Amino acid sequence: MKNKLLFATLPIVWFFTSFSQFICDPADTRLVMTGVLQWQDPAVNSFSDENRKDQELFDLISATGIPDTASTLLLDSQGTLEKMTNNIRRHMKACTENSTFIFYYAGHGSKIGDKYYFCNYDMGQDATSMFNVETLYELASKHFNGKRIVLLADCCYSGSLLAVGKKIAELGKEVIVLTSATSSNISTGNWTFTQTLLDDLRGDPFADSDGNGMISLTETAAEIKEAMKYREYQLNGFAAYNLEADKIQIGRCVAQSSATQTDSGIYSADYVYAHTAKKWRTARVMKTAGGTYTCQFYNYSVKEDVELSAENVREVYFPVYEVGAKVEVEWEGKYYKSTILKTDDVFMYIHYDGDDDSYDEWVMYDRIWTGKEVETEIEWNGVWYAGYILEQKGDRFFITYKGDEHSWDEWVTKDRLR
């Protein structure tokens, strides 16, 4: 049915201290990072290398004091299957009893049957030409004698690392897994996952939810989950095996965030829909002052702060439907009969009726048609637009405009409907 081969900058010194004390000892850490944004096969969709965040993350982690001989960065044409495999093996074999090994991949991820792959530069049509995610477990079981492994990935199906991490943990290792997507989902083409990780490693005060001046692994995982949810409508992956995530510190804040609330109920640090350039986009409120909001947008790999008035900022709402509901789910422009199996926050795990379980995936309401939508017209700025009522609470109606992006969805009163 569906083709599954898819392809506040802060002083850095605080990150050095926190990273070396809690995540790893830089002198006893091995790092292998691969970022592939262009492929040997021109048929594979490429990404822009503008302000590439894989390089930025490598530079940040390396600067903690990891020896040059203990780290490898493979970008684009360097990210071949052979080089990825050989460097992982080499660095794992070099680890000692208390070593930490860090792996990161950014690019395309693929699922073929029940197997998952990271798309190396020289990949071909045959699965054997791709980097099988299971290779990480196979190499670790044979060559890794260290203490802790950190697995990071920013790509489609990156959550496949969760199962790999669990198997490595069963070898008696401590394992941390953070990914941009689950094992069942494609991923955004933006750098949102890696950018959020960078922000937290640098000490983003918004990540310090308990206000103790430190950013824990648990807080980082929560920050990434929120960023992926609001900015990308996507559920990410996180797991910590054989360790307590809330006791692992990854960053120290250099300032406390100010959660100032406005009359509209919106706080600084909240994700909102903000209206600029004649469209609504997801942004984060960085600060509020005098009835205005400083909203931060992510534009692929570039941050943009824009000051907006209250009428151009509104809260975000995501409907969630009942487990067991029979719905239709959009996939590549077509809708398929499906069943909601379970929920996680605002995400719904669906099964495509008539397909095997390998197609099950996490989706949000923007891809779901319940059949209970009510056709209507909605007034906006004096003009009437076709749309649908998705939900009603008292005298308020949550609507979507026909043919527009879901960032336009909003709560309206009856006087704006006809």
**Order of adjacent strands in the largest pleated sheet:** 2-1-3-7-8-10
Q: What is the CATH topology classification name of the largest domain?
A: Rossmann fold
Taking the alpha carbons of the first and last residues, their distance comes to 39 Å
Number of domains: 4
Low-confidence stretches at least 5 residues in length (pLDDT < 50)? 1-21
The amount of beta strand, in percent, is 25-35%
What does this structure look like?
The protein folds into four domains: 13-252, Rossmann fold, CATH 3.40.50.1460; 271-315; 319-369, Roll (SH3 type barrels), CATH 2.30.30.140; 373-418, Roll (SH3 type barrels), CATH 2.30.30. The protein is globular and about 70 Å long. It has a six-stranded mixed sheet with strand order 2-1-3-7-8-10, with helices on both faces. It contains seven helices and 25 strands. With 418 residues, the protein is of the alpha+beta class. The longest helix is centred in the middle third of the chain and has 16 residues, at 217-232. The chain starts with 12 loop residues before the first helix and ends in a 5-residue tail after the last strand.
